[in-house]
Amino acid sequence: MKDKIKIGIISFEHMHGLSYTNALTAIDGVEIVGIADDNEFRGTQMASRFNTKHYNDYHDLLKTDVDGVIICTNNKLHCQVSVDAANAKKHILVEKPFAISAEDAQMMLEAAKKNDVKIMNAFPVRFNPNVIEAKRMIDNGEIGDILCMTGINHGKIPSGWFLDKNLSGGGGVMDHTVHLADIMRWYTGSEFKSVYCESGDLIHNKGIDDCGIVNAEFENGVFVTIDCSWAHHSNYTIWPQVDLQIIGTKGALDVKAFGQIERVVDAQNNIIQDVVFSEDGDEGLIREFVDVCKTGREPNASGYDGARAMDVAIAAYESTITHKPVLVKTY
Fold first, then answer.
1. Residue 80, number of CB atoms within 10 A of its CB
2. With the C-alpha atoms ordered 110, 116, 121, 122, is the resulting torsion angle positive or negative?
3. What's the CA gap between 122 and 17, in Å, rounded?
4. Is the separation of the CB atoms in 78 and 92 below 8 Å?
5. 2 pLDDT higher than 80
6. Alpha carbon distances (Å) from 292 to 100, 108, 241
7. Gap between the Cα atoms of 239 and 281, Å rounded
8. Residue 72 has what pLDDT?
9. Is the dihedral angle over the CA atoms 310, 178, 323, 245 positive or is it negative?
């Protein structure tokens, strides 16, 4: 087992790149060996901030002795960069959604398997303390068998490439369905069977879906609802919101992933902001990836998990067009 794990970051195009890299700096025995970003200003700025080397071309970073890479490009590039990283024998943590098509997801999984490297999807909610405690209670049978779940993943509308369907693969349905789909699948231990969804551009008029309601059924009969909307207005007090209500045969659970908050009132600038003070999941996610790079074990929140959650979002878009239930892809 290696004493020092070498990690590289590929792109800060996604906002989570900064949080993940900050989390790396808090882990003993980790070296950030480089940051690859084809935006030279952004890349050199981040390399200077984290006292590491900047690469214009991520292929040059992959030629180093880095153990693993964290990919925070736009969604469209997840497939190509992940396949290249796998072929370079590097372990991979790729931002969610895993990919933007089933074909891309299959290529990513096959490349990782062929090259005997681990690929992990960035699902930090799995590492949130409140979500973990609910998982423990469910597994211990404290609410009996799960009958149904409702979930809300709201946030503010992002900008830039997130609003370009060619680069993002979709709007709120793609961006926010996957988190809750993954947690629900994790809690039930079952696979999604069918999806019905209504979605649209109803709030922000940006030409991309910003609202969606996903209704789905699992193979074990559990039925769920996911509200995946970019529904928070610009001065809403908090960005993230992941809430679940889980109904079982013996009881119910209400889970607020970001329930521990401190309200900050800035009267001078007329700003009220809720700041999460508990572990939001990013640190746990990054510690998991570092340990995967160190041991080569299977990760919690694997690439397969990411592909299964992405399949729900893709089925939701198909259902939005047909206004009919859609069967979820099987592997």
1. 14
2. negative
3. 11
4. no
5. no
6. 25, 18, 28
7. 15
8. 98
9. positive
Tell me the whole-structure pTM to 2 decimals: 0.93
Give pLDDT, residue 165. Answer: 96
Is residue 263 pLDDT above 80, yes or no? no
Compute the distance between CA of residue 94 and CA of residue 114 in angstroms, rounded to an integer: 18
pLDDT at residue 270, as a whole number: 79
Query: Rounded to whole angstroms, how far apart are CA atoms 181 and 216?
Result: 9
Share of the chain above pLDDT 90, in %: 88
Q: Would you say residue 267 has pLDDT above 90?
A: no
Q: Is residue 308 within 8 Å of residue 180, measured between CB atoms?
A: no
Among 92, 128, 46, CA closest to 306: 92
Instruction: Tally the C-alpha atoms within 13 A of residue 160's C-alpha that lie toward its C-beta.
Output: 8
The b-or-e profile of 154-189 (16+ CB within 10 A means b, else e) is: bbbbbeebbbebebbbbbbbbbbbbbbbbbbbbbbe
Enter the tokens of residue 48: 């200077």
Residues counted in the chain: 331
Position 253, amino acid:
L
